[in-house]
Amino acid sequence: MKTLLLLTLTLLYAPETPSTATAPMQSVSQDGPKNLNPQQAAQLLKESPGVVVLDVRTPAEFSTGHIKGAVNVDYNSPTFQQQVAKLDKTKPYLVHCAVGGRSTQSLPILQKLGFTNVRHLDGGVKAWQQAGLPLVK
Q1: What domains, with CATH codes, occur in the chain?
Q2: Which end of the chain, N or C, is surrounded by fewer C-beta atoms within 10 Å?
Q3: C-alpha distances in angstroms, 29 versus 13, 26, 59, 111, 120?
Q4: Catalytic site residue 122?
Q5: Is residue 60 predicted with pLDDT exceeding 50?
């Protein structure tokens, strides 16, 4: 239990760097970790059109390119929690940021707010691009 708490705190307060982006990420799903690499995430979006892509980068980052259909809620905004609380908790979500730090930090918030069907894009939009997957502006 102490190890899990320590891991959670480490992930919550770790800066967003490429080294933290490749570390295993936590999930808020009830049935265990649901961390996806870019290919798995793309397959999920192809097979499940109801998945909401939640991009927690800044609006400036979002405007440079995002996954098609993504909803942008800035993790750094002081109203992040209030904005996310307005989203439909019954829908499935794929959460990401630039490389994984902010989206990892958002997972406990989503869990606290009652989101139970959340997947995390390991490596964020950077990994998505490196996999050759498209972004839209």
Answers
A1: 2-130 (3.40.250.10)
A2: N
A3: 21, 9, 27, 8, 10
A4: no
A5: yes
